[in-house]
Design goal:
This protein has 18 helices and eleven strands. By secondary structure, the protein is of the alpha+beta class. A hairpin with a 2-residue loop joins strand 5 and strand 6. It starts with a helix and ends with a helix.
Length: 469
Amino acid sequence: MYRKYANEAGFDVRLSNKKINKKGCITSRFYVCSKEGRPPSKYFDSLDVLPGDRRIRNSNVKRYGCGACFKIHFVKERRQYEVYKFIEQYNHMLFNKEEMRFSRSKRQLHYADHKNVFHGSSSKVGVTKSHRFRKAITGGVDCSGGTVRDHQNFKRDMAYFVDNKDVQMLLNVMSSRRKVCPEFFFEYKCDDKKLLAIFWADQTARSNYREFGDAISFDATFRTNKHAIIFVPFVAIDNHKKFVVVGAALIHNESVVDYTCVLKAFVKAHGRQPRFVITDQCASMKQAILIAFPESKHRLCMWHITKKLNSKISNYLQHRTPFVSEFNKLVWNVHLAPDEFEMKWLNMMDLYGLHGDSRFDELYEIRESWIPAYYKDYHMSGLIKTTSRSESINGFFNVYAYFWHDLVIFLRSFDNAIESQRTTHGSLVVTTKSTVPRLVSSCKLEAHAAEVYTRTIFFEVQKELRKAV
């Protein structure tokens, strides 16, 4: 009632004191004017002193020693509250109704405002934009709590609260999730209170690995937070030909030791090694895979190799000859046998004068690790070898996370990305169950494909059938 009265009168109030008895009941409340207290006794003109001589920060006077107050206490005999002091007089100017929205009480952020700032940060939405959304949803400036500056201050205070405790907070969240769901797995390694590596996989990620984990890819391309810890997502391909995350890791350095640590945790979480592992040309990854995945076949991502082609050749070869198109046509050909590929490669090197070039000689020496001709008959390899799934997953997560985020915000961003990914998967499952595709021919193969394939795959098969017809 007094807060409403103060709002109508045009001044701010605050709860100065609140007493609670042993039974937990409130026995008294002291509401006072926000300008209560003595004004500063020392003033100075900033133009009269040198910067080095300043001892008091330049600021506006916010306290006038106002005595306006409203005090109540609980009368035990009557079981009622009683007003025992009320001072109405003020010694300062009051706000009008237009100015009241800028008062301290009107600028207080509510829990919904705090959530808006936090979720905006974890969705890569800045404070200014999230405040605009909040203002639009609530119906205008008067209905939204605080100004943009107040929201920025809360985000700053939130960062100060986390500070350097984000590693421990991350581990606490992981432990809490494991208590709620025993299927949640995580394992970490620390040294001198510094997080070196951590791997985690929830129940859905482990289930996805059991279904689609014959071939996986992983890559570490960007540093995700203020500690410069590297994010490493482990990716598989589902039955809709979409990527799914089967595990995630954070490592402090791209070293053999850190990679080996998370790869061993990967095997411990899933119980078996993948048949295929697709990575880029990182030497540390290669050594760690030999240690942790001795039964897996390691292949290099062709996309990572071919995208560097322009940096390996001259401008003349790149723009004035058909070398680039012929190179791509050769290395992506899944119908060549190994001996045919070797013959065509050597002929192309001689034709364009690249025979003896160390960069192309190195690619030829590791041809069995990236050319489809050497592993085209292996099961599941065709789903990953033609595109960079790890690169696309890193771009996908980059939509949700800034690299300077602390680990708390990063984990929330990761959860948002995973939720979006699994929503897409669920939508495709429902579409497959609830729709019947339109057949374009009387071919029995097409009708059979409509029954056994999900819609995404079936439409690709249908496109091939159209070409054949």
